[in-house]
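Quick one: structure tokens for this chain, please?
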Amino acid sequence: MRGLNRTVLLSRALRSNFTAVSSATATLHRAAPYGTITVRSNDPSVNGFRYVSSSSTSLAYDAQTKAFNPKELVLFQYQACPFCNKVAAFLDYYDIPFKVVEVNPINKKEIKWSDYKKVPILTVDGEQMVDSSDIIDKLIKRIHADYDLNAEEEKKWREWVDNHLVHVLSPNIYRNVPEALESFDYITTQGNFSFSERLVAKYGGAAAMYFVSKKLKKKHNITDERAALYGAAEQWVDALNGRKFLGGLDPNLADLAVFGVLRPIRHLQSGRDMVEHTRIGKWFSEMDRAVGQSSRFSLGSKHHGDLRSNTGTETCIPPILPFQSGRDMVEQTRIGKWLYEMDRAYEDMKLLLS
């Protein structure tokens, strides 16, 4: 049952990242070899339904990843770790399939084989890589041998993520007891815990981190948690300077780093407040579409297939939605929210029965 719960929650977490967008048009996803179309709607309740297309394989994507074709990537992580999510966002964007081993933060038995005792750890065909930024540097060089890692603006904002942005997260997600419990409810349901460990971690961890967050707040000279979070979000939007992404028309490594560390909090109270009270929502929605569905393997699948093979090639949504009539219906009526909830329920049922 624990495995089923984790699978269902993962499915929901992935789908919950489908965010509202600005126009009622359908576009092909840049890097989705499974071929998906995303319906964009003015209705905020319609969060990026994806549909199958037979012609969406990107030649540019094929060229980018041709030189990097490992047999096995394994990411050892904590689900809620911002640095782990940086690596996952990179792999998702470049559509590189990877397995995930969720490390138990209490005993860390999953990484006892390694002398390095922090996460993330990524193994590429058995080769160990550590430190999120170093991992990404090595991977991008294997994908694009001539990638300039010293581009001034990109380097500046990647360092800003590691040295500033991550430090405003803990004081926010553990700001008070209800938010600390909300955060640990997410951490313990997504993480690798036994039932008893989950109970201890949720309540004991929430209490401990509530006090730790106060020390972190003092250490990093944060007087108002939300003001610091909103300020960081606005600082990032200012850096975009009207561009779709910091990288221009496509995300660069700084975009992926910011998105990666913010993605775990997006549906916590702190993340909801951030989107509501700052200008970052539009960029986040654009990034969500650009990154797309996760390329992590569904380890609970009978054939260990890509998670998208379980969620992206079938749907209970009416077949007219990819067409103009369906997009008009979603844009001009209130049916979108109900369709979205039906899609979620259908996908959860498929996972339970698989």
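The first strand starts at residue 26 and ends at 28.
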